[in-house]
Write a structure and sequence with these properties.
Elements (H helix, E strand, L loop, with lengths): L1 E3 L2 E4 L9 H9 L3 E4 L12 E3 L3 E6 L5 H10 L4 E6 L10 E5 L2 E5 L2 H13 L5 E5 L8 E5 L3 E7 L5 H7 L6 E5 L2 H4 L19
Length: about 200
């Protein structure tokens, strides 16, 4: 599932079909739901990175070019670029947004190659923060009223060297979140999250 502003796209993936409860919750938020009915299209939310300016879609075992094309059709106001997932399950297995214009990226060679491709394809300039562990780059950024920049990130117990890198984000509220159990089934922090860009009264 990919959500931005007042639209969302849904696509069945390897886990389970979207539930009626999720559809109702999204409709209650006045989101326009665009269902992907093309049987040849695959799109997993773990392969969709929205930077605030554009979308990057990782082409992986679970996301194909047709899925990326349908995402582009749903979000016509934004550029959608595809990048290869050279290693790992998804694009967000080694990167995520760490704030406005800041990409968190793993240090592995495949992750760094993907970052270089993203930089070459984009008309925008992004800062990046490299962490030693690819999976540690999967974080959740929020800009909360009265809190400012908030980053949910894996704990030092999981990735001690990467946790030290997050401490460089001095203006952030850093919240370590244990992902030990979800990691056993290839789950990451963003897998368990649906971020909505809504006003504070929602």
């Amino acid at each position: 599932m990919a959500i931005h502003s007042d639209s969302s796209t849904e696509q069945e993936d390897w886990r389970a079909s979207p539930t009626e409860a999720m559809n109702k919750a999204l409709k209650d938020l006045n989101l326009n739901i665009v269902e992907m009915t093309d049987e040849n299209a695959t799109l997993d939310g773990g392969d969709v990175l929205f930077t605030g300016r554009e979308f990057f879609v990782g082409l992986s075992k679970r996301t194909n070019q047709r899925g990326a094309e349908l995402l582009a059709d749903a979000f016509k106001d934004y550029a959608v670029s595809t990048v290869p997932v050279l290693e790992g399950l998804h694009l967000k297995s080694f990167c995520s947004m760490g704030g406005p214009g800041l990409i968190l990226i793993g240090a592995s060679e495949p992750a760094q190659k993907t970052l270089k491709i993203m930089q070459q394809m984009s008309d925008h300039r992004y800062d990046n923060l490299t962490v030693p562990d690819d999976y540690a780059a999967n974080c959740i950024y929020m800009n909360l009223p009265n809190k400012g920049h908030v980053l949910l990130h894996p704990t030092a117990e999981q990735y001690p060297e990467s946790a030290k890198v997050f401490e460089k984000l001095k203006d952030y509220m850093l919240i370590p979140v244990s992902n030990l159990e979800k990691a056993k089934v290839d789950g990451a922090l963003t897998c368990c999250s649906i971020l909505l860009n809504k006003k504070a009264n929602v």
